Amino acid sequence: MPVPHRVVISVFPDVDLLDVTGPAEVFALANRETTGRAR
After folding, report:
1. Superkingdom of the source (predicted)?
2. How many CA atoms within 13 Å lie on the side-chain side of 7?
3. FRET label pair with 8: which of 15, 16, 24, 37, CA 20 to 30 Å apart?
4. Distance (Å, whole) CA 7 – CA 25
């Protein structure tokens, strides 16, 4: 069974929206693609 990981994305003043949503979406997609699959 895979061990859960916590990913933290820090946001600073004057950040662009894409700088936050881009990495968050990549991790969300990776989670959706690997959930329930055997290694």
Report:
1. Bacteria
2. 10
3. 37
4. 12
Q: What is the pTM of this model?
A: 0.60
At 17-38, the pLDDT tens digits run 998 899 889 988 888 888 755 5
* Radius of gyration, alpha carbons of the chain: 13
Closest listed residue to residue 31, CA positions, set 13, 11, 4, 12: 4
Q: Residues 31, 35, 37, 39: is their CA dihedral positive or negative?
A: positive
The residue behind tokens 């290694």 is 39
Angle CA(8)–CA(12)–CA(17) in degrees, nearest 5? 80
